[in-house]
């Protein structure tokens, strides 16, 4: 009988294979396109003296440094709220446990230090379950910070 870690490895490798195949299919469609002849272009107008002035907006845009990209220091559990079960699975990976009762579903993830439960509810019969509550606890069942627990469970690139 396969263990959970073996199943997770198989699922991740299968997912990677699908992504590689999809990427290769996209590349071949780009290669099939025949090149088009360039359209004739009118000669560019000479720049006006005001556009060459040092205080013009164009000159300052080129000289200003790029806006830095801010990377969150920790994941936001609130980001999970409103996601479908498929979205949660895509972000968090394969859950350790999924429990469903009537119009409620719980997806459980476990790290070496904590357990994260994501509760999803079906707004109306036949609609997708949506995450409505996130709760974390340590392995002894005591409350645990859900932000820290998520940081242990998902790669930093997904924050």
Strand percentage lies at 15-25%
- Rg to the nearest angstrom? 25 Å
Distance between the termini: 34 Å
Gross morphology is globular
Order of helices and strands: HHHEEEEH
How is the CATH topology of the domain at 77-154 named? Double Stranded RNA Binding Domain
Identify the CATH class of the domain at 77-154: Alpha Beta
* CATH architecture descriptor name of the domain at 77-154: 2-Layer Sandwich
* Spatial arrangement of strands, main beta sheet: 1-2-3-4
Report the major sheet.
4 strands, antiparallel
Description of the molecule:
The protein contains four helices and four strands. The protein is an alpha+beta fold and 159 residues long. It has a domain of 78 residues: Double Stranded RNA Binding Domain (2-Layer Sandwich), CATH 3.30.160. A hairpin with a 3-residue loop joins strand 2 and strand 3. The longest helix has 28 residues. About 23% of the residues have low confidence.
Could you give a short description of this structure?
Residues 34-54 have a biased composition (Low complexity). By secondary structure, the chain is α+β, with helices and mostly antiparallel strands.
Question: Strands, helices and their partners?
Answer:
Elements: H1 4-31, H2 57-63, H3 85-92, E1 97-101, E2 104-110, E3 114-121, E4 130-138, H4 146-153
Antiparallel strand pairs: 1-2, 2-3, 3-4
């Amino acid at each position: 009988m396969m263990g959970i870690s073996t199943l997770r490895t198989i699922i991740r490798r299968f997912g990677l294979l699908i992504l590689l195949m999809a990427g290769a299919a996209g590349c071949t469609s780009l290669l099939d396109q025949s090149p088009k002849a360039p359209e004739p272009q009118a000669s560019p107008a000479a720049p006006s003296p005001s556009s060459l002035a040092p205080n013009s907006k164009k000159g300052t845009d080129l000289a200003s440094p790029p806006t830095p990209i801010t990377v969150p220091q920790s994941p936001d559990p609130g980001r999970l709220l409103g996601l479908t079960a498929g979205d949660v699975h895509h972000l968090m990976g394969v859950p350790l446990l999924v429990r469903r009762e009537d119009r409620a579903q719980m997806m459980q993830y476990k790290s070496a230090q904590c357990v994260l439960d994501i509760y999803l509810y079906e707004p109306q019969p036949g609609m997708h379950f949506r995450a409505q509550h996130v709760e974390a606890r340590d392995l002894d069942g005591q409350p645990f910070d859900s932000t820290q627990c998520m940081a242990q469970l998902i790669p930093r690139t997904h924050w």
